[in-house]
Amino acid sequence: MREIVSVLISSGKGKKLTGFTFVETLIYTALIGLVISGFVSFSFVIVGLKNKNQIVREINDNLRETQNFIVHEIKEADAIISPTAGNASSSLVLAMPGGVEKIFLVESGVLKVVPAGGVEQSLTVNEVRVSDLNFANLANTGAKALIKTSLHMQTQGSSQEFRYVQNLTTVVCERY
Questions:
Q1: pLDDT of the chain along its 176 residues, tens only?
Q2: Is 37 in contact with 127 (CB distance < 8 Å)?
Q3: What single-letter DSSP state applies at residue 104?
Q4: What's the CA gap between 8 and 2, in Å, rounded?
Q5: How far apart are CA 30 and CA 71, in angstroms?
Q6: CA pair distance 104, 94, nearest whole angstrom
Q7: N or C, which terminus of the chain has less Cβ within 10 Å?
Q8: Reduced to 3 DSSP states, what percent helix, strand and coil does the chain have, rounded to the nearest 5?
Q9: How far is 124 from 142, CA to CA, in rounded Å?
Q10: CB contact at 8 A, 176 and 167
């Protein structure tokens, strides 16, 4: 029996050809291509979401830090010069201790604080544009000032995909 098997193997009879047919190779290649293109598409979506999240975080961080700074300065001020009681303005003028005035205003989409006779300081970064800033003094004449700040920020980019707009309104009472 061994002789018969060895004769069959050595003569080539009984050998089975192994491998993929051309059609099987095409199917497997197409499936691998689909899986790879799925992974690439998924990667692009993840990168886009990461960029959008970074933009949202940048706007929200700028809003929070800016509002916290303005609130702190209002509480530290000796008096609110502008806006006067019952009025609103796009700028805020504070009389600070030591007789120094500070002015909060928007210039070319950047929120700035300008100490009288001092160097202006930008409160927002270049990637963020302040499109609206409003200060309203809600107090009656002769009463303690109650300042309502409304701040509207958005991204600088022109791409609709990465456009984000956020508003924040805060009310602060003047310290006496």
A1: 455 445 445 555 555 667 788 899 999 999 999 999 999 999 999 998 898 888 888 888 889 999 999 999 999 988 889 898 889 999 999 999 888 899 999 988 899 999 887 888 988 888 888 988 999 999 887 778 889 999 999 887 667 777 888 888 888 887 76
A2: no
A3: E
A4: 10
A5: 61
A6: 9
A7: N
A8: 40, 30, 30
A9: 34
A10: no
Q: Give me the chain's average pLDDT, please.
A: 84
Strand duo 101-107 + 88-89: pairing = unpaired
Q: Are 104 and 116 in contact (CB under 8 A)?
A: no
Bridge partner list, 112:
105, 122
SS (H, E, C) 3-14: HHHHHHHHHCCC
Q: For residue 67, what is the enclosing H or E element? A: helix 22-76
Domain ranges (residues) in the chain: 29-173
pLDDT of residue 5: 46
Closest to 87 (Cα-Cα) out of 133, 140, 45: 140
